[in-house]
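A further point concerns the way the authors explain their paired sequence and structure data. An entry of this sort, consisting of the sequence and the corresponding C-alpha coordinates, reads as follows:
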Amino acid sequence: MRRRSGLRLNWRTLAGMGQRAVGSTKRPVPWAPLALGAATLCYVSVAGGLSPFTWPAMVSTTIGGLAIFAVAWRRPSPSTAVRASRSGLVAWAGWLAAVTGWELWALSMHPRSSHPTLSSLLNNLIETHPGRSVALLAWLGLGWWLARR
Protein backbone atom coordinates (compact mmCIF):
# COMPACT_ATOMS: atom_id res chain seq x y z
CA MET A 1 0.00 0.00 0.00
CA ARG A 2 1.28 3.41 -0.93
CA ARG A 3 1.02 6.52 1.29
CA ARG A 4 -0.16 9.80 -0.09
CA SER A 5 2.20 12.68 0.16
CA GLY A 6 1.00 15.93 1.60
CA LEU A 7 -0.88 16.93 4.71
CA ARG A 8 -3.42 14.76 6.44
CA LEU A 9 -6.18 16.83 7.95
CA ASN A 10 -8.56 15.70 10.64
CA TRP A 11 -11.17 17.45 12.74
CA ARG A 12 -8.71 18.35 15.50
CA THR A 13 -6.37 20.19 13.19
CA LEU A 14 -9.26 21.94 11.51
CA ALA A 15 -10.64 23.02 14.89
CA GLY A 16 -7.21 24.25 16.02
CA MET A 17 -6.95 21.80 18.90
CA GLY A 18 -3.20 21.46 18.57
CA GLN A 19 -2.46 18.26 16.65
CA ARG A 20 -0.02 18.54 13.82
CA ALA A 21 -0.70 16.99 10.47
CA VAL A 22 1.54 14.14 9.34
CA GLY A 23 4.59 15.47 7.54
CA SER A 24 4.02 19.03 8.71
CA THR A 25 6.78 20.91 10.54
CA LYS A 26 4.64 23.87 11.50
CA ARG A 27 3.57 24.27 15.10
CA PRO A 28 -0.12 24.77 15.81
CA VAL A 29 -1.32 28.33 16.29
CA PRO A 30 -1.94 29.14 19.97
CA TRP A 31 -5.48 30.48 19.85
CA ALA A 32 -5.82 31.51 23.50
CA PRO A 33 -3.11 34.25 23.43
CA LEU A 34 -4.40 35.50 20.07
CA ALA A 35 -7.96 35.68 21.39
CA LEU A 36 -6.77 37.45 24.56
CA GLY A 37 -4.80 39.95 22.47
CA ALA A 38 -7.76 40.62 20.17
CA ALA A 39 -10.11 41.06 23.14
CA THR A 40 -7.63 43.43 24.78
CA LEU A 41 -7.30 45.54 21.65
CA CYS A 42 -11.10 45.70 21.30
CA TYR A 43 -11.41 46.65 24.97
CA VAL A 44 -8.86 49.49 24.80
CA SER A 45 -10.40 50.76 21.57
CA VAL A 46 -13.87 50.97 23.11
CA ALA A 47 -12.70 52.21 26.51
CA GLY A 48 -10.39 54.79 24.93
CA GLY A 49 -13.32 56.25 23.02
CA LEU A 50 -15.33 57.00 26.15
CA SER A 51 -15.49 60.56 27.45
CA PRO A 52 -13.03 61.09 30.30
CA PHE A 53 -14.30 61.48 33.88
CA THR A 54 -17.67 59.85 33.18
CA TRP A 55 -19.29 56.81 34.77
CA PRO A 56 -18.83 54.60 31.69
CA ALA A 57 -15.11 55.48 31.58
CA MET A 58 -14.73 54.73 35.28
CA VAL A 59 -16.56 51.40 34.96
CA SER A 60 -14.49 50.36 31.93
CA THR A 61 -11.23 51.21 33.73
CA THR A 62 -12.40 49.29 36.78
CA ILE A 63 -13.19 46.25 34.62
CA GLY A 64 -9.66 46.31 33.19
CA GLY A 65 -8.15 46.59 36.67
CA LEU A 66 -10.28 43.72 37.95
CA ALA A 67 -9.17 41.55 35.02
CA ILE A 68 -5.53 42.15 35.96
CA PHE A 69 -6.40 41.50 39.61
CA ALA A 70 -7.93 38.15 38.59
CA VAL A 71 -4.68 37.21 36.83
CA ALA A 72 -2.68 38.07 39.94
CA TRP A 73 -5.12 36.20 42.18
CA ARG A 74 -4.85 32.98 40.15
CA ARG A 75 -1.06 33.05 40.16
CA PRO A 76 0.44 31.04 43.01
CA SER A 77 2.54 33.01 45.44
CA PRO A 78 6.28 32.36 45.35
CA SER A 79 7.51 29.93 47.97
CA THR A 80 10.48 32.10 48.90
CA ALA A 81 10.38 35.81 49.49
CA VAL A 82 13.02 38.00 47.88
CA ARG A 83 14.63 40.41 50.29
CA ALA A 84 14.67 44.00 49.07
CA SER A 85 18.09 45.59 48.80
CA ARG A 86 18.93 48.77 50.65
CA SER A 87 20.29 50.39 47.48
CA GLY A 88 17.02 49.65 45.64
CA LEU A 89 15.03 51.18 48.48
CA VAL A 90 17.20 54.30 48.45
CA ALA A 91 16.91 54.60 44.65
CA TRP A 92 13.10 54.30 44.68
CA ALA A 93 12.77 56.68 47.65
CA GLY A 94 14.99 59.23 45.89
CA TRP A 95 13.01 58.96 42.65
CA LEU A 96 9.71 59.31 44.52
CA ALA A 97 10.99 62.33 46.48
CA ALA A 98 12.23 64.01 43.27
CA VAL A 99 8.93 63.50 41.42
CA THR A 100 6.87 64.61 44.43
CA GLY A 101 9.07 67.69 44.87
CA TRP A 102 8.73 68.60 41.20
CA GLU A 103 4.95 68.15 41.31
CA LEU A 104 4.60 70.35 44.40
CA TRP A 105 6.93 73.02 43.00
CA ALA A 106 5.19 73.06 39.60
CA LEU A 107 1.77 73.14 41.24
CA SER A 108 2.68 76.23 43.27
CA MET A 109 4.14 78.14 40.30
CA HIS A 110 2.17 80.10 37.71
CA PRO A 111 1.48 80.05 34.76
CA ARG A 112 0.94 76.34 34.30
CA SER A 113 2.22 76.49 30.70
CA SER A 114 5.67 77.55 31.98
CA HIS A 115 5.65 75.13 34.94
CA PRO A 116 3.78 71.96 33.91
CA THR A 117 2.91 69.14 36.27
CA LEU A 118 2.94 65.50 35.20
CA SER A 119 -0.83 65.48 34.83
CA SER A 120 -0.81 68.57 32.61
CA LEU A 121 1.91 66.99 30.44
CA LEU A 122 -0.06 63.75 30.15
CA ASN A 123 -3.29 65.59 29.34
CA ASN A 124 -1.82 66.62 25.98
CA LEU A 125 -1.05 62.97 25.20
CA ILE A 126 -4.42 61.54 26.23
CA GLU A 127 -6.75 64.16 24.77
CA THR A 128 -7.49 62.02 21.73
CA HIS A 129 -9.14 58.62 21.38
CA PRO A 130 -5.94 56.91 20.13
CA GLY A 131 -3.91 58.53 22.91
CA ARG A 132 -6.29 57.30 25.61
CA SER A 133 -6.35 53.83 24.03
CA VAL A 134 -2.55 53.60 23.99
CA ALA A 135 -2.37 54.89 27.58
CA LEU A 136 -4.94 52.31 28.68
CA LEU A 137 -3.04 49.57 26.86
CA ALA A 138 0.18 50.65 28.59
CA TRP A 139 -1.62 50.67 31.95
CA LEU A 140 -2.93 47.14 31.33
CA GLY A 141 0.50 46.01 30.18
CA LEU A 142 2.12 47.35 33.34
CA GLY A 143 -0.53 45.66 35.45
CA TRP A 144 -0.06 42.37 33.58
CA TRP A 145 3.71 42.59 34.04
CA LEU A 146 3.34 43.29 37.77
CA ALA A 147 0.80 40.47 38.17
CA ARG A 148 3.12 37.96 36.47
CA ARG A 149 6.07 38.77 38.74
